[in-house]
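Q: Hi! First time doing this. I have a protein sequence and I read that you can turn it into a structure. Is that right? Here it is:
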Amino acid sequence: MKILAIESSCDETAAAVVEDGRTILSNIIATQVEEHKLYGGVVPEIASRRHCESIVGVVDEALGQAALTLADIDAVAVTYAPGLIGALLVGVNFAKGLAYAANKPLIPVHHIKGHIAANYIAHPELKPPYICLAASGGHSQIMRVETYTEYSTIGKTLDDAAGEAFDKAARAMGFPYPGGIYIDKASKTGDKHKYKLPRPHTANPYDFSFSGLKTNVINLVHNAKQKGEELDIDSLAASFQYTVADILTAKFVAAADEYGYKTAALAGGVAANSGLRALLEERCAQHGITLYVPPISLCGDNAAMIGAQAFYEFTEARRTADLSLNAVASMPL
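A: Yes, that's right. Below is the predicted 3D structure, encoded as structure tokens:
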């Protein structure tokens, strides 16, 4: 089954053709990072306008790279939630029009489900059930992946997600957007034990809270500036990255042990962070847990992951949408 997938939840306009949920025939991404870098973060109105400008060309390129026409496609899939509402609406409305005009089924896909499904492309042997840590700019949660389309939440963020905390802490340290990448680079030459940063506690031991940690870093930077003191930014970046990675890893591995999982997966944009990947691989190995991690190219927003999940939404859950499908800015799994 060949699915043409569209992703426009934030600042990447993406289209891909995926076969049977596991094989990428094409994967095209038009990024807006350089433009949003001017403003220190994503400007929703600009993102929506750029999606409008890019989506036709991106879809055409995806079909061309796959050497297919719309007639060869079996279904159209689209990210409909969660994300920036204006950005989502561009993709949803385009996909609805395309599916209607071509008389193809329309498959709605939850963005976080797509991130998890990136692992199916990279690891054909991976099958539910398993435990998954999804960490991105807007989400940090531990989930039991019971089937390809059914999930239950063990723990979630109570305030800032890990990716959001990375970007805001990075801005305070003087790094450009997107800050997580620059913290990762700086941490390679810094001392991760130089700065002792707080580790927030939660009532549910598997929930996350990164707001206080982020605020602590921001205050540390501001206080140093006011006093004219020099900070070791590389070491502060390394300390922050290690603290976030350690919190995520410790809770995730503890949840896997308690719920009896020996198979685990990592997903989301923060999955690209080298510190988190290394620490999670080390701790999972110590606990006898087989860990699956997507390649860097599939950690960020892309349409291939949406096409992968769409295959299971269609074949396992028989989930399709009609022309009443609407975008939703916030939606839990």
